Amino acid sequence: AKLDNKIYQVMDRELIQAQKILNQHFNGLKALAEALLARETLTGKEVEEIFNEHSIKANSLKRDEKGELIF
Question: CB under 8 Å to 48, separation ≥6 — which residues?
């Protein structure tokens, strides 16, 4: 029972953190979704431009040897 409670606490904390991040970047994520709906595919550079326009840091995403985003 103690372990179950601890697991629920961790899950609740992480859910709140995920919601905070999504809300913080809502406009940028909406712009990304709209671009994908309009064009179906985007290059890493296009995604990075959208992120930059909305102050979403893309530095933690994987990049190739040229520095372009990898998905």
Answer: 58, 69
What is residue 39's predicted lDDT score, i.e. its pLDDT? Answer: 92
Tell me the whole-structure pTM to 2 decimals.
0.68
Longest dimension (CA), the chain: 51
pLDDT score of 60 more than 70: no
Q: Nearest 10 degrees: CA dihedral of 67, 68, 70, 71?
A: 150
CB 42 within 8 A of CB 36: yes
CB atoms within 10 A of CB 42: 17
- Residue 12: both structure tokens together: 């609740």
- Considering only CA atoms, which of 14, 61, 4 is closest in space to residue 47? 61
